[in-house]
Specification:
155 residues, 6% strand, two-stranded antiparallel ribbon, 2 domains, mainly alpha
Protein backbone atom coordinates (compact mmCIF):
# COMPACT_ATOMS: atom_id res chain seq x y z
CA UNK A 1 0.00 0.00 0.00
CA UNK A 2 2.72 2.48 0.95
CA UNK A 3 4.60 1.60 -2.21
CA UNK A 4 1.51 2.37 -4.38
CA UNK A 5 1.07 5.72 -2.64
CA UNK A 6 4.71 6.62 -3.36
CA UNK A 7 4.35 5.69 -7.01
CA UNK A 8 1.11 7.66 -7.30
CA UNK A 9 2.72 10.68 -5.67
CA UNK A 10 5.75 10.42 -7.96
CA UNK A 11 3.53 10.19 -11.06
CA UNK A 12 1.54 13.23 -9.93
CA UNK A 13 4.75 15.21 -9.25
CA UNK A 14 6.11 14.22 -12.66
CA UNK A 15 2.91 15.40 -14.38
CA UNK A 16 3.08 18.73 -12.56
CA UNK A 17 6.71 19.23 -13.58
CA UNK A 18 5.93 18.42 -17.22
CA UNK A 19 3.02 20.87 -17.13
CA UNK A 20 5.23 23.62 -15.67
CA UNK A 21 7.87 22.98 -18.32
CA UNK A 22 5.26 23.01 -21.08
CA UNK A 23 3.71 26.23 -19.77
CA UNK A 24 7.12 27.94 -19.84
CA UNK A 25 7.77 26.73 -23.38
CA UNK A 26 4.27 27.77 -24.46
CA UNK A 27 4.82 31.27 -23.09
CA UNK A 28 8.04 31.61 -25.11
CA UNK A 29 6.35 30.28 -28.26
CA UNK A 30 3.39 32.65 -27.86
CA UNK A 31 5.74 35.59 -27.38
CA UNK A 32 7.64 34.68 -30.57
CA UNK A 33 4.38 34.47 -32.54
CA UNK A 34 3.16 37.95 -31.53
CA UNK A 35 2.83 40.46 -34.32
CA UNK A 36 3.37 44.21 -34.19
CA UNK A 37 -0.41 44.54 -34.07
CA UNK A 38 -0.52 42.32 -30.96
CA UNK A 39 2.07 44.50 -29.21
CA UNK A 40 0.15 47.65 -30.20
CA UNK A 41 -3.05 46.25 -28.66
CA UNK A 42 -1.29 45.30 -25.43
CA UNK A 43 0.34 48.71 -25.13
CA UNK A 44 -2.96 50.47 -25.89
CA UNK A 45 -4.62 48.72 -22.94
CA UNK A 46 -1.78 49.67 -20.56
CA UNK A 47 -1.56 53.23 -21.91
CA UNK A 48 -5.33 53.76 -21.59
CA UNK A 49 -5.20 52.47 -18.01
CA UNK A 50 -2.50 55.04 -17.26
CA UNK A 51 -4.55 57.87 -18.81
CA UNK A 52 -7.69 56.87 -16.90
CA UNK A 53 -5.76 56.67 -13.64
CA UNK A 54 -4.01 60.00 -14.29
CA UNK A 55 -7.23 61.82 -15.18
CA UNK A 56 -9.78 60.19 -12.86
CA UNK A 57 -10.17 63.35 -10.75
CA UNK A 58 -9.90 65.94 -13.54
CA UNK A 59 -13.29 65.70 -15.22
CA UNK A 60 -14.10 65.08 -18.86
CA UNK A 61 -11.71 66.94 -21.17
CA UNK A 62 -14.64 67.99 -23.37
CA UNK A 63 -17.60 68.75 -21.11
CA UNK A 64 -15.93 68.97 -17.69
CA UNK A 65 -18.36 66.60 -15.98
CA UNK A 66 -16.87 64.33 -13.30
CA UNK A 67 -15.54 61.05 -14.63
CA UNK A 68 -17.58 58.55 -12.64
CA UNK A 69 -17.71 54.86 -13.46
CA UNK A 70 -16.65 53.89 -16.94
CA UNK A 71 -14.90 56.54 -19.00
CA UNK A 72 -12.65 56.57 -22.03
CA UNK A 73 -9.12 57.63 -22.82
CA UNK A 74 -10.14 59.98 -25.62
CA UNK A 75 -7.70 61.05 -28.32
CA UNK A 76 -7.63 64.67 -29.52
CA UNK A 77 -6.07 63.55 -32.80
CA UNK A 78 -7.59 60.17 -33.60
CA UNK A 79 -5.51 57.01 -33.86
CA UNK A 80 -6.81 56.41 -37.39
CA UNK A 81 -5.88 59.81 -38.78
CA UNK A 82 -2.77 60.46 -36.68
CA UNK A 83 -1.15 57.20 -35.52
CA UNK A 84 2.01 59.14 -34.63
CA UNK A 85 0.24 60.61 -31.60
CA UNK A 86 -1.47 57.40 -30.49
CA UNK A 87 0.65 57.19 -27.32
CA UNK A 88 1.33 60.89 -26.80
CA UNK A 89 0.17 61.83 -23.27
CA UNK A 90 -0.76 65.36 -24.34
CA UNK A 91 -3.03 63.92 -27.05
CA UNK A 92 -5.04 61.58 -24.81
CA UNK A 93 -7.24 62.56 -21.88
CA UNK A 94 -10.03 61.20 -19.71
CA UNK A 95 -13.30 61.66 -21.52
CA UNK A 96 -16.83 60.63 -20.67
CA UNK A 97 -18.33 57.92 -22.85
CA UNK A 98 -21.03 60.29 -24.10
CA UNK A 99 -18.56 62.88 -25.43
CA UNK A 100 -16.11 60.36 -26.83
CA UNK A 101 -18.44 57.83 -28.41
CA UNK A 102 -21.75 59.61 -28.99
CA UNK A 103 -20.42 63.08 -29.86
CA UNK A 104 -17.39 61.73 -31.75
CA UNK A 105 -14.92 63.17 -29.20
CA UNK A 106 -16.91 66.40 -28.88
CA UNK A 107 -13.91 67.85 -30.67
CA UNK A 108 -14.98 71.50 -30.58
CA UNK A 109 -15.17 71.51 -26.77
CA UNK A 110 -12.00 69.33 -26.57
CA UNK A 111 -10.17 71.95 -28.69
CA UNK A 112 -11.29 74.76 -26.39
CA UNK A 113 -10.33 72.98 -23.15
CA UNK A 114 -7.10 71.21 -24.13
CA UNK A 115 -4.76 74.25 -24.06
CA UNK A 116 -5.86 75.01 -20.49
CA UNK A 117 -5.16 71.40 -19.47
CA UNK A 118 -1.70 70.98 -21.05
CA UNK A 119 -0.58 74.59 -21.61
CA UNK A 120 -0.39 76.62 -24.81
CA UNK A 121 3.18 75.60 -25.58
CA UNK A 122 2.39 71.89 -25.29
CA UNK A 123 -0.76 72.39 -27.35
CA UNK A 124 1.21 74.13 -30.12
CA UNK A 125 3.83 71.38 -29.97
CA UNK A 126 1.11 68.73 -30.27
CA UNK A 127 -0.25 70.43 -33.39
CA UNK A 128 3.22 70.50 -34.93
CA UNK A 129 3.71 66.76 -34.30
CA UNK A 130 0.52 65.63 -36.01
CA UNK A 131 2.08 65.17 -39.44
CA UNK A 132 5.04 63.11 -38.28
CA UNK A 133 5.61 59.51 -39.19
CA UNK A 134 6.30 56.84 -36.64
CA UNK A 135 6.33 53.08 -37.01
CA UNK A 136 6.81 51.49 -33.63
CA UNK A 137 9.02 48.40 -33.51
CA UNK A 138 8.15 45.46 -31.27
CA UNK A 139 10.98 46.15 -28.81
CA UNK A 140 9.94 49.80 -28.53
CA UNK A 141 6.33 48.76 -27.88
CA UNK A 142 7.44 46.32 -25.15
CA UNK A 143 9.52 49.06 -23.50
CA UNK A 144 6.65 51.53 -23.67
CA UNK A 145 4.30 48.95 -22.14
CA UNK A 146 6.66 48.51 -19.17
CA UNK A 147 7.08 52.29 -18.91
CA UNK A 148 3.32 52.91 -18.65
CA UNK A 149 2.81 50.03 -16.23
CA UNK A 150 5.40 51.65 -13.98
CA UNK A 151 3.94 55.15 -14.39
CA UNK A 152 0.49 53.80 -13.46
CA UNK A 153 1.87 52.19 -10.31
CA UNK A 154 3.49 55.49 -9.32
CA UNK A 155 0.19 57.41 -9.48
Amino acid sequence: MVHDACISEHVQYSKEQKLKTWNKKKKVIKEKLKTNKDYLKELQVVFNTYIRTRDKDKGCISCGKPLIGKFDAGHFYSVGSTPTLRFNEDNVHGQCVYCNQHLHANIHAYTERLPARIGKESFDNLKSLRNGLNKYGNEELKEMKQHYKQKTKEL
